[in-house]
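Here is the promised in-class demo. Please do not try to memorize the tokens; focus on the logic of going from shape to residues.
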């Protein structure tokens, strides 16, 4: 799977143009709108990988990329809110309690509250890690079905995530993507690393898509019916329709 993931972004006739465009869009992401196109492209990568394709998609059908990126942002916002709520609640409890205790005095109470705060923040952090583990399955299920609600189909997502195949692929994505992005970051200041950063994102999302596909198979679920993509792309669904 490592070799497949490293070759995937390069398995296209226009790989140079794709990486240059991807790198340029990453630089222009500060303008917001280009970021949607990049995210839409990554959604297309998830869809392609889940469908078993070995060739990375091109930057075509820009309107579709933008829409997919916008939908992907909404999914991320909901997930981010779910992760943030426990931290907000813990912060309110801890700092509110500290203010009340500060008015009343008592070093023992302050120490006890500090300990409780540390434990609560640890629980919130653990919750964030657990949610993050499910993200590849959530993102890919959304990409495959093309519906926002598919990202929150907990029954399907849990079935896929609770498989060894999914776990291995996700860990590989985190490690391999981290290494590539670290290398890209070192050279980003001279711009050479920007396409490498884009390459690292594609590798990571390819592995996320494969984690979904492998986990789905291991869970005994029927093969996913990949939603059709715009005719201007090379990505096809399992029925062979463009």
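The designed amino acids, position by position:
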């Amino acid at each position: 799977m490592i070799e497949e993931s490293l070759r995937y972004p390069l398995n296209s006739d226009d790989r140079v143009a794709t990486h240059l465009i991807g790198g340029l869009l990453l630089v222009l992401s500060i303008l917001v709108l280009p970021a949607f196109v990049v995210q839409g492209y990554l959604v297309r990568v998830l869809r392609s990988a889940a469908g078993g394709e070995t060739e990375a998609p091109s930057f075509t059908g820009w309107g579709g990329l933008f829409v997919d990126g916008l939908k992907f942002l909404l999914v991320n916002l909901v997930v981010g809110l779910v992760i943030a709520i426990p931290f907000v609640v813990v912060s309110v409890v801890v700092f509110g309690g500290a203010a009340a205790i500060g008015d009343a005095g008592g070093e023992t109470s302050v120490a006890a509250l500090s300990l409780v705060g540390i434990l609560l923040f640890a629980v919130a952090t653990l919750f964030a890690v657990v949610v993050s583990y499910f993200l590849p399955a959530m993102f890919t299920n959304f990409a495959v079905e093309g519906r926002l609600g598919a990202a929150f189909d907990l029954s399907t997502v849990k079935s896929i995530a609770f498989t060894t195949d999914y776990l291995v692929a996700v860990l590989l994505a985190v490690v391999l993507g981290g290494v590539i992005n670290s290398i890209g970051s070192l050279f980003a200041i001279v711009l050479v690393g920007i396409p490498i950063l884009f390459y690292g994102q594609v590798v990571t999302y390819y592995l996320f898509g494969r984690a979904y596909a492998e986990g789905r198979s291991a869970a005994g679920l029927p093969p996913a019916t990949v939603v059709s993509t715009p005719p201007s792309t090379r990505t096809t669904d399992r029925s062979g329709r463009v």
